[in-house]
Amino acid sequence: MKLLSIAVPCYNSSRYMRKCIDSLLPGGEDVEIIIVNDGSSDNTADIAEEYRERFPSIVKVVNKENGGHGSAVNSGMEFAKGLYFKVVDSDDWVNQSAYIQILDTLKNLIKDGKTVDMFISNYVYEKEGEMRKKVIKYHHALPQEQVFTWKDVRHFRVGQYILMHSVIYRTNLLRECGLRLPEHTFYVDSIFVFNPLPYVRTMYYLDVNFYRYFIGRADQSVNEQVMIGRIDQQIKVNKLLVDYYVEEKQRIIVNGKVRRYMLNYLDIITTVSSVLLIRSGLPENLDKKKELWNYIKEKDKWIWGHLRFGILGSAMHLPGKLGRKITVDGYKICQRIFHFN
């Protein structure tokens, strides 16, 4: 069995996928790299096959019809043989020294009989045109270099949430929780991180800057104007997270820290949906914002009340044009501080 399976979802990725794959190859025989060609129309498939021929014991290639990022991740999980599972998007890459440290740490944990459910490390915003790189670390919230449980988790700061970039899951945990991402849907990274959390018992945090998250291409899915254009996708994911929380509520509420973290995550996602709808300036999107909040209220009034009357929820409901301007101005300040979008 391999130590770590790394899925690399690729769609028309020929311009940048080599940098990604080359950064993963130093993992050697401990790693399997699963390149998932999601129906590309460029020469992504040829590049993937080239790597498979050069590194047949390390690289797998899955060619499939286009189904979107979630579908590609699903395929990666289906073919994964590693004890742990990681997603690295084809326009991102990893730091080699941090990579080796993570693999060594995972091997030592296994040698000591400590197979953890979730492994966390830092990620870096590689934002186009910026010399200073924003690093997301977790040392204020998580114990370092030791196995811990939810009871040891401290307060997460704003902008410090665990994303797909920072997490490695035990592969069988993803299967045990029945994780399946929706096809032809953007922004499913949130589901990948969110849904397994009630099943996580043991964790480990290594304070290394591992994942390099490239951000800045005009056509990138997290570009703000692209997100506004795809706002229905964001709303869909938002609702799916709410649905999942309600479905798994009995499992979630037995652990106060899991409940608090997942509610705070819902708060952030719903705020992002709301502020993008406001920022678009379109009357029909203000109606969609109202419909989203009504959806949450109908699903679970307690969750709705927690979100609606919290600091962020209140800010999303400031009345009139002036209120919406204050909301957008606050969002712009957060953009500058936390370097997102």
N-to-C CA distance: 38 Å
Number of domains: 2
The CATH homologous superfamily name of the largest domain equals Spore Coat Polysaccharide Biosynthesis Protein SpsA, Chain A
Category from helices, strands and their pairing:
alpha/beta
Taken in chain order, the helices and strands follow as: EHEHEHEEHEEEEHHEHHHHHHHH
Mean pLDDT: 92
How would a crystallographer describe the biggest sheet? 10 strands, mixed
Helix content: 40-55%
| Low-pLDDT stretches | 337-341
Number of helices: 14
Beta-strand percentage range: 15-25%
For this structure, what is the CATH class of the largest domain? Alpha Beta
Radius of gyration: 20 Å
The CATH topology assignment of the largest domain is: Spore Coat Polysaccharide Biosynthesis Protein SpsA, Chain A
Return the CATH architecture of the largest domain. Alpha-Beta Complex
- Global morphology: globular
Can you describe what's shown?
By secondary structure, the protein is an alpha/beta fold. Helices cover 46% and strands 17% of the residues. It is built from 14 helices and ten strands. Helix 8 (231-247) runs parallel beside helix 11 (283-299). The protein is globular and about 60 Å long. The model is unreliable at 337-341 (pLDDT under 50).
